[in-house]
């Protein structure tokens, strides 16, 4: 069932796909926010940052989250959960990648603030989208699993950081005015969950509950039929 138990759409592969997509997006948000602190010592050494600059870079992700969260919550309620994610997360991915190749402190700070401001949409929209797309009897378990994804962020980034920071390469990119070192590569690697989650989300549907709340009954019915098709393996026309 999607978004409730009154309209049967089944439970199965579609719901699992939605869980994976939302877990990846919420994980990417946490990596964007808190993963930055792991590379900060290497970045400070590489770019000769003073203490105040390091402190500002540590605070910027939280500032971006605070500034943008209300706006993304409003966007999620007015424009749709899926639409919000498909607007925000690709932008967050691009800005995160731009952060990894920024040659100066000012550009790194700017791109990081913007990337977290966009990735914060996952907190506003992904939890709601998942909760409204699974039957009520499975909802608490799915939301718990999604919340658990936030707990593996430090383990994940540290697992990559340990081998990467043992590398000693430095490739000069003269047209950007920077030297490509391991910390930049690590920041690029942790962008992968955002890319994967966004790709997954392209193939998923809007929350049927949201569509019903906006008076878009036919669209909600079409979504339920699609969920039913993937969960049951039957044709949309067989939807009860």
TrEMBL record:
The keyword Zinc appears for this protein: no
UniProt cross-references to PROSITE patterns, sorted A to Z: MFS
Entry keyword set: Membrane, Transmembrane, Transmembrane helix, Transport
GO terms, molecular function: transmembrane transporter activity
One term under GO cellular component: membrane
Positions of the Major facilitator superfamily (MFS) profile domain: 18-240
Pfam families: Sugar_tr
Domain of life: Eukaryota
Subcellular location: Membrane
Membrane spanning stretches: 18-43, 55-73, 85-107, 113-131, 143-165, 185-204
Gene3D superfamilies named among the record's database cross-references: MFS general substrate transporter like domains
Membrane topology: Multi-pass membrane protein
Family indicated by similarity: Belongs to the major facilitator superfamily.
This protein's name: SFRICE_035196
